[in-house]
Design goal:
The complex is a heterodimer of chains A (390) and B (308). In chain A, 24% of the residues lie in helices and 31% in strands. The C terminus of chain A is likely disordered. Chain B is an all-alpha fold and 308 residues long. Chain B is flat and about 75 Å long. The N terminus of chain B is likely disordered. The chains are: A alpha+beta (390), B mainly alpha (308). At the A-B interface, β6 and α2 of A face α9 and α10 of B.
Chain lengths: 390, 308
């Protein structure tokens, strides 16, 4: 078990940069997710850590050792692929034994017929089989050992791929979207299993995904990657509650965070254009120049329905999604680019008809403000939560 | 061929559930295809087998049914056995060599980055060229006195050889031409097979420690090429059993029957001696061999090289 350090990794395919000086520290035993939309470079970064691709700049350190020039198998990492990449002609047992055979048997011992003549080979093979059996027990795939991958379901293949990664007790596991080929129910189940597995074996996990739920539910920390850079690294709750960049705020959370355009007045207080209550400034201040354009982010669950006469935001109900435990109200606000989404209790939304006028209120402490470039602006003052009623 | 057999086997169960007019319409729609197949594919084979049971001679006004006499005559004919043996020997040289060369060249082309299209085209030229014309070029090159090959050997200080006149050399020489002509075709098939191997398998092999060329080949390439290899093997075998053009142009079965092969014997019996019945019997033997190879591929081998 070792930590992994990435130091200003750069990679370009032809003229196109895919990684722009990515640095990341992964502590031993941590479960870190690389989260980002497809094409953000997260898989390329993982392949560079694995040694399957080489970086143009920067270095990869595993357990403090620079492995930039070390071939993949000698880095002692294991990788689980999106397609599982099981050898289709080998049984589950033989698949899981392959990394052990390659590591523990010499070239002569691996020869088909002659290899049997090598002294000590039988003992080595018995030890490998025992190890495979042990891992199969952990993953509950013992009954499958004699089968071939073609005879397995997606979930079973997933487990075998995990097993093949585990047998060697690698210093770290690299996972490239391992759950994306499973159906929804199985994916939810495997999330729990993977998190359990991580707790159980305590190894370092580097997990690549575009699915924020996977990243949020399993990781110790998430590194959000956008356009070839890591934009923010932090615990799931931190990424969600305290996004440092509007792109992170938008990428994490479903439904998306609501963004409301505002302009600061002389005291740094934001004024929402063309909204209710005569465009009165909100009773909170941000560290921005007077007249600066702001984008105020408010999560859907932080918006509440209120009397239009009293609310800072007024609009009409465009659409209502009843999800059982909660209702999503899409409210079209005058001058707003996209409808705002409020996640409210079904009781609060009951009786509201489509096109009815709706007021929206929010706690001032729930506002996350971003500047024109998308960077987070800290609040200078905002009333205490209990008093913040707008 | 095996694919075509599957619906036929399932048909009776499905037909029971269908209304009569649907079955009739199906029959009517497939009738033209069945008629054409009977006329052009099954009919000629039946005619050849039928003819092999007669003493028909090309141009004769009458003929009679003689049962298996043609076959028993073949069984007692030393030339026929020589011809069958030569054909097997020719295949035994050409099949493994063109298989290995085709695979080797395909691997080299696939491993490299530059000039891929050029190499593909160059090695495929002998496949596209008309073999009769190419055989004549080979005849010039192999000429005992003025041929390029012997002149080269002499200039390098080696003894010239009578490539096509020496009974020990004639068949191997034809086999070399056969390999030259066939391996480009195998190469193209292997190239297609190589392209379809999923890349993640090579990544997995690299992570597992199989990162040398040989280990990678053994763990991923060779098993994944299984279906293609099987196809190449059977196609090469069938094509080398069909050797005729080079024999006809270069040796006419000689010297002293050293290059007598099945199809050449058939041609000689049928169109030089006009014994069409005997020729048909040889053709039937040839058909049985080809059919056996095809069945071998369809039955036993397919199961072992496909993994799903």
């Amino acid at each position: 078990m070792s930590g992994i350090s990435l130091r200003s990794i750069g990679k370009r395919f032809g003229e196109t940069p895919v990684l722009r000086g990515v640095s990341l520290e992964i502590r031993a035993g941590e479960f870190v997710s690389l989260l980002g939309p497809s094409g953000c470079g997260k898989s390329t970064l993982l392949r560079i850590v694995a040694g399957l691709d080489s970086q143009d700049e920067g270095e990869v350190l595993i357990g403090g050792r620079d492995v930039s020039e070390v071939r993949p198998s000698a880095r002692d990492l294991a990788m689980v692929f999106q397609s599982y990449a099981l050898y289709p002609h080998l049984t589950v047992e033989a698949n899981m034994m392959t990394p052990l055979r390659m590591r523990d048997l010499g070239a002569f011992e691996r020869l088909p017929l002659l290899g049997a003549l090598a002294p000590g080979r039988a003992a080595k093979l018995a030890a490998m089989r025992a190890r495979v059996r042990e891992v199969a027990e952990t993953l509950r795939i013992e009954p499958l050992l004699a089968r071939k991958p073609g005879q397995l379901s997606g979930g079973q293949r997933q487990r075998v791929a995990l097993g093949r990664a585990m047998v060697r007790k690698p210093v770290a596991f690299l996972m490239d979207e391992p759950l994306s080929n499973l159906d929804a129910a199985l994916r939810v189940h495997m999330r729990t299993e993977l998190a359990d597995l991580h707790r159980q074996i305590g190894a370092t996990f580097l997990y690549v995904t575009h699915d924020q739920v996977e990243a949020m539910t399993m990781s110790s920390r998430i590194a959000v990657m956008l356009e070839g850079s890591i934009v923010q690294v932090g615990a799931p709750a931190e990424i969600y509650d305290d996004p440092r960049d509007v792109r992170v705020a938008e990428f994490i959370g479903s439904p998306k965070i609501n963004l409301i355009d505002a302009v600061t007045d002389g005291a740094g207080q934001p004024r929402i254009d063309g909204a209710g209550r005569g465009g009165q400034a909100l009773d909170c201040a941000f560290a921005a120049r007077p007249g600066a354009a702001l984008r105020l982010g408010v999560r859907p669950e932080h918006l509440r329905l209120a009397d239009p006469a009293l609310a800072p935001l007024v609009g009409r109900l465009r659409h209502r999604e009843e999800l059982g435990a909660e209702t999503l109200c899409h409210v079209e606000v005058q001058g707003g680019a996209a409808p705002l989404v409020a996640r409210v209790s079904p009781a609060a939304a009951r009786g509201l008809r489509i096109n009815a006028p709706v007021g929206l209120v929010f706690d001032l402490s729930d506002i996350r403000a971003f500047d024109a470039a998308g960077l987070r602006i800290e609040a200078v003052s905002s009333p205490a939560r209990a008093a913040a009623h707008v | 061929m095996s694919e075509a057999a599957i619906p036929l086997r399932r048909a009776p169960a499905a037909a029971r559930r269908r209304p009569r007019h649907v079955a009739l319409a199906g029959l009517a729609l497939s009738a033209p295809a069945i008629a054409l197949m009977a006329l052009f594919l099954i009919g000629p084979v039946g005619a050849v087998i039928g003819m092999s049971l007669t003493d028909y001679q090309l141009g004769a006004r009458s003929w009679s049914f003689i049962g298996l006499d043609n076959y028993s005559a073949l069984a007692g004919d030393a030339v026929f056995w020589k011809s069958l043996g030569n054909t097997l020997l020719y295949a035994a040289i050409v099949v493994p060599a063109s298989f290995a060369l085709g695979l080797g060249v395909a691997l080299l082309i696939e491993a490299g980055r530059s000039f891929r299209a050029f190499y593909r085209a160059v090695f495929f030229v002998p496949v596209m060229a008309t073999l009769i014309a190419m055989a004549i070029s080979w005849e010039f090159m192999l000429h005992a006195q003025f041929g390029l090959i012997n002149l080269t050997l002499i200039s390098l200080g080696f003894a010239p050889q009578a490539w096509l006149a020496n009974p020990d050399l004639a068949l191997p020489t034809l086999a070399v031409i056969g390999i030259w002509q066939a391996f480009g075709f195998n190469m193209v098939l292997f190239l297609a097979g190589l392209v379809s191997i999923p890349r993640p398998l090579y990544d997995a092999a690299a992570m597992d420690g199989a990162d040398g060329a040989f280990e990678r080949f053994r763990l991923v390439t060779w098993p994944m090429l299984g279906p293609v290899s099987m196809f190449v093997l059977v196609i090469s075998a069938i094509r080398s059993f069909q050797v005729f053009d080079t024999v006809h142009v270069l040796t006419k079965g000689g010297p002293s029957k050293a290059t007598e092969v099945l199809l050449y014997s058939m041609y000689a019996e049928g169109f030089e001696f006009f014994r069409s019945g005997v020729a048909a019997a040889i053709a039937t033997v040839f058909l049985v061999i080809v059919l056996a190879l095809t069945l071998l591929k369809a039955r036993a081998a397919d199961r072992r090289v496909h993994y799903s």
